[in-house]
Amino acid sequence: MPAAQTIELRPNCALTPRSARCFFASLCAATLAVAAPFTLRGLWPILPFAAVEMLALGWALHAALARRHQRQSLTITDDSVAIDSQLPPRSEHVVFSRHWTHAKLRRAASPWHPGRLTLESHGRACEVGAFLTEEERRGLARRLQRLVGRMSESPPMSESATQLRSA
């Protein structure tokens, strides 16, 4: 049975559903406390605008919480690289031959956009770690280049798990 290295990727989501509810409720209460006196003085348009702002904040919190369900698992064996992605609402399983696979880190077109890390082989590509920060993505790219190698070059799978986790 070939040795395998597994890399689990998950977004850093410090916000829990309970803390999001507490934050949202306290901000709604503060917004209502500021808007209510103005509304009582006849400046009624303030209240609908405050409600729209709170709806936008609620949507943003919901999107941030949905992100915590994203996961990618990369399994690298002596002869293959398998990528299992759970990026709700879709799930994907891609397998490449390790000997022909290479990791490619592409810089972003502008500083406002993130770079892309892809595993490529025979004209196919699969993006990995789209939810990672730039620093994490660069570290993952170095780690994958050590494990997978360059095109037509498969380094031995001799690194220990402790060395890989420190990368």
Task: Quickly describe the structure.
By secondary structure, the chain is an alpha+beta fold.
List the helices and strands and how they pair.
Elements: E1 4-9, H1 17-40, H2 46-66, E2 71-77, E3 80-87, E4 90-97, E5 102-106, E6 116-121, E7 124-127, H3 134-148, H4 161-166
Antiparallel strand pairs: 1-2, 2-3, 3-4, 5-6, 6-7
Could you walk me through the main structural features you see in this protein, from its secondary elements to its overall organization?
By secondary structure, the chain is of the alpha+beta class. It has 4 helices and 7 strands. The strands form 2 sheets. A 4-stranded antiparallel beta sheet has the order 1-2-3-4, with no helix packed on it. The longest helix is centred in the N-terminal third of the chain and has 24 residues. It is elongated, with a radius of gyration of 23 Å. The C terminus is likely disordered.
What is the straight-line distance between the termini? 26 Å
Q: What's the main sheet like?
A: 4 strands, antiparallel
- The helix count comes to 4
Total count of domains: 2
Features of this protein?
7 strands, four-stranded antiparallel sheet, PH-domain like, elongated, about 170 residues, 4 helices, three-stranded antiparallel sheet
